[in-house]
Amino acid sequence: MKRFQKYIKVPCLLVHDTESAALAEIWHDTTISNAIYLALNRNFGGTLILNGKVHSTQEPRSSVIEHMCLDPNGPLCYCGKRGCIEVFCSADHLVDKAGMDISAFFKGVKENEKDCLLIWNEYLDYLALAIDNIRSVVNCDFIIGGYLVQFMTDNDFFSLLNELLKKRNSLSIFSFKTRPSRFKDKSPKLGAAMLFIDEFFLNLSNIAQSMILWIFSYLLGLYFVIVKPTTH
Question: 82 by DSSP, 3-state: which?
Fold first, then answer.
């Protein structure tokens, strides 16, 4: 980060786009306590929200949900493993599989083109498998965001996804929800901005506290200089 800072004359932070997207969701809805944020971007991403905060560590391999394995004999992932969520649930996977851009693909889905529907149903089935696996470890709600969400409506995505999840659910109680991101593909930008805004208000708070302490000390000094002598 120091290398970048030398060439950019404004403060810089390096943050994972999925984590900053989750921050935007928390900022918008302070009732979020525990949740999983999944980003359906060109590359799949995911992060964990615990107790109203994004779970993050200094270890770069923390919260790399996209590299959980769905099929050990599946396609090779850029990470070197096979069958990661990434190779089944990224937007790039849809483009490669369909042989067309995303807009054209979803146009085909809405027009019930057979090939597009087959690819789309397979995609959703793998996404449901990924969510079900994650939910087995952390039973909480899922927020679905990222690039692909702008092409989806409740009817062609969340209703079908929830039906697939119910079929995969081995328990009699379906105790979690999936919902779209509030800001769709704009969440990472808003979340990154919030980091600087929080820092600004924190600094402002520190300045205010310093001013209050200074005023208190000043008034206390006046008390001993002015009030005390008059009490003789």
Answer: strand
Which tens digits make up the pLDDT trace of 134-175? 988 888 899 999 999 888 876 668 888 888 888 877 665 667
Using CA atoms, how far residue 55 sits from 44, 66, 97, 143, 193, in Å, is 18, 15, 33, 15, 18
Which pairing describes strands 44-50 and 35-40: parallel, antiparallel, or unpaired? antiparallel
Axis-axis angle for helices 159-168, 114-137 (nearest 10): 50
Look at residue 205 and tell me if it is in a domain. Answer: no
The 10 Å Cβ neighbour count of residue 157 is 21
Q: Which two tokens stand for residue 79?
A: 């990470």
Confirm whether 28 is domain-assigned. yes
Q: Give the Cα separation of 166 and 147 in Å (integer).
A: 25
As a whole number of Å, the end-to-end CA separation of the chain is 63
Nearest to 182 by CA among 16, 28, 11, 17: 28
Phi-psi region at 210: left, alpha or beta (left = phi > 0; alpha = psi -120 to 50): alpha
pLDDT tens digits, one per residue of 14-45:
788 899 999 999 988 889 999 999 999 999 99
Residue with tokens 């800072």, as numbered in its chain: 5
The number of folded domains in the chain is: 1
